[in-house]
Amino acid sequence: LIHAIRAMAASRAVSLVVVVAPPDGAPEVKHLLDEHALPERTDYLVVPGGETRQESVRLGLEALPEDVAVVLVHDAARPLVPVDTVDAVAAAVRDGAPAVVPALPLADTVKEVEPAATPG
Asked: Name one GO molecular function term (predicted).
């Protein structure tokens, strides 16, 4: 979670990170955030989530100030998002895209192994 928050906060396009915690886990998540050094130029808000991802996203959106014009929804299970990707998504929305789903090329990993030796 901390890596995902730092990834978002590394972007100059992000001024507020709303962390949607498990429904009964907001105090623990807030405590976790308080224990780690996070960028001071970014504000953080922790809200309890819902029973589904969709409900959690809705609750996170409802927690936003009314003047927020661009919203990025990020899954903390993918904490290593490059800051360039965050910047590109925010820029695309500011340039008029109604929604953006980033996709990054993946490098396949191929490993060659020798067959196991069998006794006998």
From this structure: 2-C-methyl-D-erythritol 4-phosphate cytidylyltransferase activity
* CA–CA dist 29, 48 (Å, integer): 10
Tell me the two tokens of residue 15. 């001024």
Q: What pTM value is reported for the model?
A: 0.78
Amino acid identity, position 4: A
Q: Identify the bridge partners of residue 67 per DSSP, sorted by sequence position.
A: none
- CB burial class (10 A; 0-12, 13-18, 19+) of residue 7? buried
Q: What are phi and psi of 89, to 5 degrees?
A: -65, -45
